[in-house]
Amino acid sequence: xxxxxxxxxxxxxxxxxxxxxxxxxxxxxxxxxxxxxxxxxxxxxxxxxxxxxxxxxxxxxxxxxxxxxxxxxxxxxxxxxxxxxxxxxxxxxxxxxxxxxxxxxxxxxxxxxxxxxxxxxxxxxxxxxxxxxxxxxxxxxxxxxxxxxxxxxxxxxxxxxxxxxxxxxxxxxxxxxxxxxxxxxxxxxxxxxxxxxxxxxxxxxxxxxxxxxxxxxxxxxxxxxxxxxxxxxxxxxxxxxxxxxxxxxxxxxxxxxxxxxxxxxxxxxxxxxxxxxxxxxxxxxxxxxxxxxxx
Length: 295
What we know:
alpha/beta, TIM Barrel, 8-stranded mixed beta sheet, 3-stranded antiparallel beta sheet, 11 helices, 11 strands, GTP 3',8'-cyclase activity, cyclic pyranopterin monophosphate synthase activity, GTP-binding, nucleotide-binding
């Protein structure tokens, strides 16, 4: 998480019962997959309870985490039957990790990955690529995927409030593919695109490793996106980049059905990137920071 994050008062956030009830409404409307994200989801004191409650719903359960607190929640993660966990890891070098995260938690993250490999939980590693920061590690991460029989996904650096995004920091889809092809040669084989998939995936021949690219800036996939995001304070976003939000928590607390609100939000989903122009500073800065959206 970034430094100097202002935490919202507890009363402004969804409580355990509210998360369960609101998610139950989404399930009634046809949602079949729930991913718990952050910030850092494992930092919530009630996360084990949340996991076990959601596990009772007819959905596939998933999580994205920085991995630091995985060791403290192993029992609940296994008990919940969670299907997959994405671990955020932007450098395979302890010094590089510290430079990017400003934390000395590299070993904890690696230990989390090693533990996850011993479980039935599908494990992926997410890497946000930033030019001049970790783009020199692309081939190292490909080798890491092979060595550990994992999926590694390279995520294009995206503009959010306070993250100092610029087009020059972005490493494009084609650039990453070119680097991987030069490194792996004809071992890199494109996999068929699945419905509503956000990544372009490549199988590394002769291994069980897969590398994926999520390239929202250079190759947007908005037309096939079926995601909705529910923030910790109960706001629904129909697009990661949209600054438009619908207040489900206030409606729920007032006894109003959230289902018509959700349907209205879905119908207002824009064609591409929430209708935003990434070259316009105002369009980049009006949205929440990523830590306050969840991803």
